Amino acid sequence: MDDAAGAIKSIVGHRERLVSLDVFRGITLAGMLIVNNPGYGDITYWPLEHAEWHGWTPTDLVFPFFLFIVGITTHISLEGRRARGDGAAALRHQVWRRAGLIFLIGAVLNWFPFYSITRAPPDADLLSLMGDRLFHLRIPGVLQRIALCYLAGGFIVLSFGWRAQVVLLAAILLGYWAILMLVPVPGTGATGLAAIADPTATLGAWIDRGLLDWGDAGNHLWRVTKVRDPEGVLSTLPAIGTVILGLLAGRWIGQSMPVKHRVLVLLSAGIACVAIGLAWDLVLPINKNLWTSSYVLLSAGLGAMLLAMLMAVTDVLGWRRWAEPFLVFGVNPIFTYALSYVTAVVIYAWWKVPDNGQSVGVERWFTDVAFAPWLPPKMASLGFSVFYVFCFYVLLRAFYKRGVILKV
């Protein structure tokens, strides 16, 4: 085992806390709320949309940034507990317990609102409707992927030193590249770039259908397409690579050396990852849905660069007053995600109001009333997103001021 425990012990012993990491997490969560909650779902600025297939936008960085942070915090948390004397069995129990709870929360959110609110007649049997919803429950999801990647990252920390982690990362990225390019897609026989040209005809989509479309037992894939899942089985493998890069970053920023030195090395490593990712894009397109190896390096590299800059501003220069809103968002990440998911289902799909002779979601009605009269459509849509984030800020700030932290 490497000397990471000693490095983290210096942090624990001196109670150093890098404010920049909490700010980074808060920026990521606030960005998630903005891109996920436009006033007009079909009208928004291009940076707030996902790339249709190959390529990327700033929105495509939100999820990998969060997984990168998961890797950093997993390393710091587990090595900190190990430095305090916690045994291997207790640490393994923590990893299993937390991963299981996160996965369960994700599954319950996928089930919510527990029955099809658009197809329920007034005299319908509620239990039957709930059973039908469960019968078609989507098994993958954002929190489910976070849970699986955290589980893998936790056991990697407990089992391997940093050199072995680098080897494992290289094996995952190169191996996944080989799988995508060399393994023929069953049914089409396509390989290479042709195998990843059609979102519904990739090897990952074929695996998802084989494992999650159970025929008479229900289809458990993303209901938008029903033939593939953006958080599918195969692409979870390179997502673990994103967490490993976070583990390595966490080990580095936890070193007992001047913060300035840590910032420079982290920034340089981020630039290198971005450069390699962009070069790799020439033969393996950057693609969030596939979570391609080039996408792993690009997104983690940009995350490392942003974190390095935040460290320089908040931890080296001490400029922290501006960051208070992001600290508020960064304290309760799982709770914030779950509440935003439930709120979005309610205001977009459940709570309907009349608007210009139509029955629309309350978010569209509110945008029409509050923003559309004095702003162009895209700006009005963004105005609702900003208002939505502000509402969450008010709630989360109340939690923050009272020291309420809802941990999983």
- The level of helicity is 55-70%
Largest sheet: 2 strands, antiparallel
Taken as a percent bin, the fraction of beta residues is under 5%
The class by helix and strand makeup works out as mainly alpha
How would you characterize this protein structure?
- With 408 residues, this protein is mostly helical.
- It has one domain.
- Helices cover 63% and strands 2% of the residues.
- It contains 15 helices and two strands.
- The chain has helices spanning 4-14, 19-36, 62-83, 88-111, 126-135, 142-159, 162-182, 203-212, 236-253, 259-280, 293-316, 324-330, 333-350, 362-370, 377-401, and strands spanning 352-355, 358-361.
- The chain has a two-stranded antiparallel ribbon with strand order 1-2.
- β1 and β2 form a beta hairpin.
- α2 packs across α11 (293-316).
- The longest helix is centred in the last third of the chain and has 25 residues, at 377-401.
- The radius of gyration is 22 Å and the shape is globular.
- Residues 1-15 have low confidence and may be disordered.
What is the topology?
Blueprint: H1 4-14, H2 19-36, H3 62-83, H4 88-111, H5 126-135, H6 142-159, H7 162-182, H8 203-212, H9 236-253, H10 259-280, H11 293-316, H12 324-330, H13 333-350, E1 352-355, E2 358-361, H14 362-370, H15 377-401
Antiparallel strand pairs: 1-2
Helix pairs in contact: 1-3, 2-3, 2-11, 2-12, 2-13, 2-15, 3-6, 3-9, 4-6, 4-13, 6-9, 7-9, 9-11, 10-11, 12-15, 14-15
Task: Briefly summarize what is shown.
The chain is mainly alpha-helical. It has 15 helices and 2 strands.
